[in-house]
Specification:
alpha/beta, Rossmann fold, 6-stranded mixed β-sheet, globular
Length: about 230
Amino acid sequence: MKRKHIPQFTNQSWFPNILKVCIFEFMTWFVGKVNAAQPFLPVIEKGLQHTKNQQIINIKSNIGAGFETVKPLLNPNIKTQETSIENILPKTEGLYLSINAFHQLNPVEAKNLLYKIAKNGQPLVIVEGNNDSLWQVIGMTIFVPLTVLLTAPFVQPFRFARLIFTYLIPILPVVTLLDGFFALFKLYAPADLDELTADILVENYNWESGKMDNGRGGKIIYLIGSPQK
């Protein structure tokens, strides 16, 4: 497996919560502004074809730029609810969805999550807006930190702490750069996803992984799990 599980600052218990909040809010705000969640919709719609009740179950995470960036783009008739990784219940039916968060799981955690959902016979969609291309590396190490510097006064909700830790004590640009760069090494490429799912032996359940154009010269990574009809 090419992917490496590298610790990030925002994953550490000692990292101040106010800085985590500022980084997560920036990520969510930025993704919304550039409409970076739009390319996820065709994959989500494909996953919804395998549901009976047109319900999405968001596998919640606290890393920012997750389901909150996708929800405003969904058909309002689609029902949504949340669950945690630890609380995947057998009788909860719907499309399980993970947005920009699956890379935070180590291979054991990732495989356990996939197995639980497949064993329950429910469809699953995992999407990541980043990939390990040279363009993505340039974006994460140059353009994103520069955007943090240029947009700090405009990110919503407004926080004085964001200004302090962007301009007076420039922790936010530095940590955003480093965490974004480290995250690229943690991504599960399609080959890694295939390696994870190869050992999940659940009858009448299919897996599909790949990359898809994001409409701006980049790619998204996706995994779709679906029970056979």
